[in-house]
Design brief:
The complex is a heterodimer. By secondary structure, chain A is α/β, with parallel strands linked by helices. In chain A, the strands form 3 sheets. A 6-stranded mixed sheet of chain A has the order 6-7-8-3-9-10, with helices on both faces. Chain A has a 4-stranded antiparallel sheet with strand order 2-1-4-5, with helices on one face. A 4-stranded antiparallel sheet of chain A has the order 12-13-11-14, covered by helices on one side. Chain A starts with a strand and ends in a 6-residue tail after the last helix. By secondary structure, chain B is mainly α. In chain B, helix 2 runs parallel beside helix 6 and helix 3 runs antiparallel to helix 5. Chain B starts with a helix and ends with a helix. Classes of the chains: A alpha/beta, B mainly alpha. Chains A and B meet through helix 2, strand 6 and helix 3 of A and helix 4 and helix 10 of B.
Chain lengths: ~300, ~270
């Protein structure tokens, strides 16, 4: 769905993007990770037809973003990191205006806007002035605008930046909802825990170069990074601790004895995790929950990046 | 799409008094407007008309250029231009919609002058034809000023820069040619007092266009009227000047649409 080949972008002498190669399958949520100044926003602007690359190829659904930008814009929804809103309009009017821009017939607009308001949980604010919305609501309104023409691909630049914890959770739930609807989502962020929860694949960029990319499991595996596991049991704390300590792949065991909760890191694939769980149960440990926290992106990020900027 | 842009500007308060102004005009015009020159029995109407039109032209010039110069730059400042560009609108739609909004805004502001202009033929000294011609020239001028304002607005990012350039543009357009002509006259040996006897580029100034128009009104009602007509390399009637401005407006609009996307991408670099 998204294809980037040998992409370069120079700003004068500064190389913002350096030989970037990426492929994002249909229906994936691709997390584009990198520190500030790594080239994320530049790549996203090129993908969104707002900027021409210095060299290389960029295609969305097979359409070249340089040759046919208007065709691309019809199938792409772009949400910038910093955006403005027509604050004097009401929420419904705002969406109606962009629906008109997308040439959605007048008779269909009402139903489409109501659906999107419901999806973004803004129905109650339908008649409120845009200027009076909170930051989180404005963010959701911008996302609603991005969805108004039912794009195949969503390109979101730091969609959760500046949001409070509740706003972040809501944004995450919304993106998960969109994923279920079959949208291909390309999302950039430097908040790794946020991406780890819902991304199917990731790419880490530093100083304009893509240092690692692929499906999260594959990346974790290839980088040899430990998986963070949280285990809650009912009894047999000592036995459980013994089993964990006797497993060579496990390290950094932390036990909260009163709560009967263990957290540990394990260098293992899914099969090894399943084997460990079966082994615990087989030995009489009553397991309440066994959870792969997946917070490995931070480890991978720290491992593959060196803190450079373009 | 143009309607959407105009509608979102919330011109409702302006529309109400525009309708009132048109209603007043309608009352005057109800089968009574003297259309031909024979209706001119004294010369008060043409003087009154000149005063009203000079104010109207001045307001129209400043408002149209200023409003258009802010139209796209303000979108850039509010960071809404990116959303508009990504909304499936082509550069032509954005540019013409913005131009339509500026045109409507200026026309709404100018409409209260309409009853005053409409009454002029009743006062004598000017025909309905001349009034219609003046309004046509004003409309063409508006298109030119708006096209120039929009072009400036595309070029610059900040509103204050656009306003500064729009002001400079107006000053140069209206007065710059006269200064250049004077400089050429001095350079070719003319004295201070005879420098106005030679015209080169000032024939293209809007001031000259309107002077030519008002001269034609005077000539129509004043026996043996001899307008001030210096030697000019370009001798243009008001109609010819208007045609030139219309052509310039078309070129500016076309250039604005053509450069819009690529220029904005280039500015991002």
């Amino acid at each position: 769905m998204i294809e980037i080949k040998n992409l370069y972008k120079y700003y004068g002498n500064l190389m913002a993007v350096n030989n970037l190669n990426l492929f994002v399958e249909k229906g994936e949520i691709f997390g584009f990770i990198g520190p500030n100044g790594a080239g994320k926003s530049t790549t996203i602007k090129i993908l969104s037809t707002l900027l021409n690359p210095s060299a290389g190829l960029c295609k969305i659904n097979g359409i070249n973003v340089v040759d046919e930008p208007y065709k691309v814009r019809r199938i792409l929804g772009y949400m910038p990191d910093l955006f403005g809103l027509y604050e004097e309009l009401k929420v419904f009017e705002y969406l109606d205006f962009f629906a008109a821009c997308h040439k959605i017939p007048y008779k269909d607009r009402n139903a489409i806007i109501n659906d999107i308001l419901e999806l973004t949980d803004l129905t109650v604010k339908k008649d409120s002035p845009v200027g009076g919305l909170s930051r989180g609501m404005k963010q959701r309104l911008c996302l609603a605008k991005t969805l108004i023409h039912d794009p195949l691909v969503l390109v979101l630049d730091e969609p959760a930046s500046g949001l409070d914890p509740r706003g972040r959770v809501e944004m995450r739930m919304l993106l998960n909802e969109l994923r279920k609807m079959g949208k291909t989502i390309f999302v950039s962020s430097h908040i790794l825990t946020e991406l780890a929860d819902f991304c199917t694949s990731v790419g880490i960029i530093e100083a304009g170069r893509l240092v690692v990319s692929g499906r999260i499991e594959d990346v974790v595996k290839s980088q040899g990074v430990n998986r963070h596991i949280k285990l809650k049991i009912i009894d047999n704390v000592e036995l459980c601790e013994t089993i964990l300590k006797s497993t060579p792949e496990i390290s950094n065991i932390e036990a909260a004895v009163l709560e009967k909760v263990f957290t540990f890191e394990m260098r293992a694939d899914d099969q090894a995790l399943a084997d460990l769980l079966r082994h615990l149960i087989h030995n009489g440990v009553q397991v309440v929950s066994f959870y792969d926290k997946g917070g490995n992106l931070e480890d991978i990020f720290m491992k593959v990046t060196k803190g450079q900027v373009s | 799409m143009i309607f959407e842009f105009i509608y979102r500007q919330n011109h409702a308060p302006l529309v109400s008094y525009a309708i009132s102004a048109l209603a007043i005009c309608g009352c005057f015009l109800f089968g009574q407007w003297p259309y031909e020159q024979e209706a001119l029995h004294n010369s008060f109407g043409d003087r009154f008309f000149t005063v009203i039109m000079v104010y109207t032209i001045a307001v129209a010039t400043v408002l149209a250029t200023g409003h258009a110069a802010l139209s796209i730059s303000s979108e850039k400042e509010k960071k809404t231009l990116t959303l508009l560009r990504m909304s499936g609108l082509g550069p032509g739609e954005i540019v013409f919609s913005k131009a339509a909004v500026s045109l409507c805004f200026t026309v709404f502001i100018l409409l209260p002058a309409a009853p005053l202009i409409t009454i002029c033929p009743f006062l004598g000294g000017i025909s309905g034809q001349a009034i219609l011609k003046s309004l046509l020239i004003l409309f063409v001028s508006l298109l030119f000023y708006i096209s120039a304002g929009i072009f400036i607005s595309i070029l610059f990012k900040k509103s204050y820069t656009c306003i500064a350039f729009a002001t400079a543009f107006l000053l140069i357009l209206h007065f710059g040619f006269f200064i250049i002509d004077d400089a050429i006259s001095y350079a070719s040996g003319a004295s201070y007092y005879s420098r106005h006897n030679y015209r080169y580029l000032s024939a293209f100034s809007p001031l000259e266009m309107w002077r030519s128009f008002f001269d034609s009104i005077q000539a129509a009602v004043t026996p043996n009227y001899k307008p001030f007509s210096p030697e000019s390399y370009f001798s243009l009637t008001s109609g010819e000047s208007a045609a030139i401005y219309f052509g310039a407006a078309v070129i500016l609009f076309y250039s604005g649409v053509k450069i819009f996307e690529n220029y904005l991408k280039w500015r991002e670099n």
